[in-house]
UniProtKB/TrEMBL annotation:
Claim: Zinc-finger is one of the keywords in the record: no
Organism whose genome encodes this protein: Chryseobacterium arthrosphaerae
Gene3D superfamilies according to UniProt: 3.40.50.2020, Aldolase class I
Binding-site list for 5-phospho-alpha-D-ribose 1-diphosphate: 25, 91-92, 95, 117-125
Protein name: Orotate phosphoribosyltransferase
Family, per entry: Belongs to the purine/pyrimidine phosphoribosyltransferase family. PyrE subfamily. In the N-terminal section; belongs to the purine/pyrimidine phosphoribosyltransferase family.
UniProt gene name: pyrE
Keywords: Decarboxylase, Glycosyltransferase, Lyase, Magnesium, Multifunctional enzyme, Pyrimidine biosynthesis, Transferase
Source species, domain of life: Bacteria
Length: 459
């Protein structure tokens, strides 16, 4: 199994914890919201979760496993399947007819039952559940919990003599997300404040709309991208990672009406010929009104980048509306791109990428100060004046086995305030590329619209 931290990050991607502003049942405002139910929808994660939970426990102690309904039921079932400890099911309410049983399954009085819970907060609902299980003459000595919200529940149960085993707690989880750049130091401090029982102030955090961004846009390419997005009701950039001119042109023709830009890796086209590849591509782009984004990821000194940009067979300067570039060569290395827009690579989507929080901070300083830069590629939020381009978006997969890590449009618009999604294999590998482009366009647009609304309220 992978490390506990890696495992948590996989779980996190399913949307189990959201950060923002949520009103709890009690009326208290919380800076985070936890819902572990999505874990049951990923069989591999559920199986791994069961094993992580079992690993923490003295298994010889238990005759039975019981999940607290409903969220922990699939978890308890998976633990039972992995450990061969029999499962019993506790009803939420006793049946009003027939046996009126509260607990279903085969058990004998006096047996020791392990309780499984998804999230522990104050611990009050667990105390009630334990009482109901004990009423059936079963013993409860241990409770295993996936996530401890650290709001007194563990202490309450321990004071009553129960052992509580927790896989993750919220402080540890925040530490992991702070390390990966998902949470800022400020957000973590606010969460800690909340956990200490303080009433916390929320700053209104609403993402700017495309109209607002358009008003503030300085660069002509930023304006064009935002205008195209509003006109086509699309925030989709299709990545055309195909290797022949014919495939490239056919793809551009199919997806053209639904995208705002086509992203190329022009150096992977095996039969590249300026006249046969670029001239028709430009015509298709003009016809369907999309921009051309060459994902060259320049990464050299200014003089070399200038040659790579203007010369060779590709002559990128003659046709691309905007290009991607690393900023590792420093501020002046970007000066040569003065007739196009530059999208700075701030953070990469692949596993183990070296674009750490401190790298990103330095990269942003260059990106924010250079007039050629219109935005950045990142898996984290960017300052509002930059356009955020997010690759690593796929509705069907969570990775590609080669290090790529995927998120859904919903996640990137809501949590990162992404402006444009970049989708490659989700579209060009699909049997019907046009239908897939329409799906991503619709999902992306709806996710953008939803991200303009205030955060959901937890009931
Ligand atoms: O961090 C990054 C930056 C980029 S530009 N991660 C990425 O995946 N990309 C590019 O986006 C990558 O080179 C590829 O062309 C596209 C993602 O393709 P997919 O097939 O994984 O959707």
């Amino acid at each position: 199994m992978e490390s506990k931290k890696e495992f948590f990050l996989e779980c996190y991607k399913l949307g189990i914890i959201k950060f923002g502003r949520f009103t709890l049942k009690s009326g208290i405002e919380s800076p985070f919201y936890v819902d572990l139910r999505p874990l049951a929808s990923d069989p591999k994660i559920l199986k791994n979760l069961a094993n992580y939970l079992l690993e923490m426990l003295p298994l010889d102690n238990f005759d039975l496993i019981c999940g607290v309904p409903y969220a922990a039921l699939p978890m308890a079932t998976a633990m039972s399947l992995e450990s061969y400890i029999p499962l019993i099911i506790k009803r939420k309410e006793a049946k009003s007819y027939g046996t009126k049983k509260l607990i279903e399954g085969i058990y004998q009085k006096g047996q020791n039952c392990l309780l499984v819970e998804d999230v522990i907060t104050s611990g009050k609902s667990l105390v009630e559940t334990i009482a109901e299980v004990e009423q059936e003459d079963l013993k409860v000595s241990d409770i295993v919990v996936v996530l401890d919200r650290e709001q007194g529940g563990k202490q309450l149960l321990e004071s009553k003599g129960y052992r509580v085993h927790t896989l993750f707690n919220i402080s540890e989880v925040c530490g992991i997300l702070q390390e990966t750049g998902e949470l800022s130091d400020e957000e973590v401090a606010r969460i800690q404040d909340f956990l200490q029982g303080n009433h916390i102030q929320f700053a209104e955090e609403i993402r700017p709309s495309y109209e607002q961004k358009l008003q503030n846009a300085q660069h002509s390419v930023s304006k064009k991208l935002l205008e195209t997005a509003l006109m086509k009701k699309s925030n989709l950039i299709a990545s055309a990672d195909v290797t022949t001119t014919q495939e490239l042109l056919a793809f551009a023709e199919k997806v053209g009406p639904h995208i705002i830009a086509l992203k190329t890796h022009i150096d992977i086209i095996s039969d590249f010929d300026y006249e046969k590849t670029i001239t028709p591509l430009k015509e298709i782009a003009a016809k369907h009104q999309f921009l051309l984004m060459e994902d060259r990821k320049f990464a050299d000194i200014g003089n070399t980048q200038e040659l790579q940009f203007t010369s060779g067979v590709f002559r990128i300067t003659d046709w691309a509306d905007f290009v991607t570039s690393q900023v590792i060569g420093g501020f002046e290395s970007l000066d040569c791109f003065n007739n196009v827009g530059v999208v700075a690579i701030v953070g990469m989507s692949s596993k183990g990428a070296l674009t750490t929080a401190s790298y990103r901070e330095e990269a942003l300083k260059v990106a924010q100060s250079h007039p050629n830069v219109i935005g950045g590629v990142s898996q984290n939020k960017l300052p509002e004046e930059l356009l955020l381009f997010t690759p690593g978006v796929n509705l069907a997969d969570s990775g590609d086995g080669k290090g790529q890590q995927y998120n859904t449009p919903e996640h990137v618009f809501k949590t990162l305030h992404t402006d444009f999604i970049i989708v490659g294999r989700g579209i060009y590998k699909s049997e019907d590329a046009e239908a897939a482009a329409i799906t991503y366009k619709t999902e992306g647009w709806n996710a953008y619209i939803n991200s303009l609304e205030k955060k959901a309220i937890q009931s």
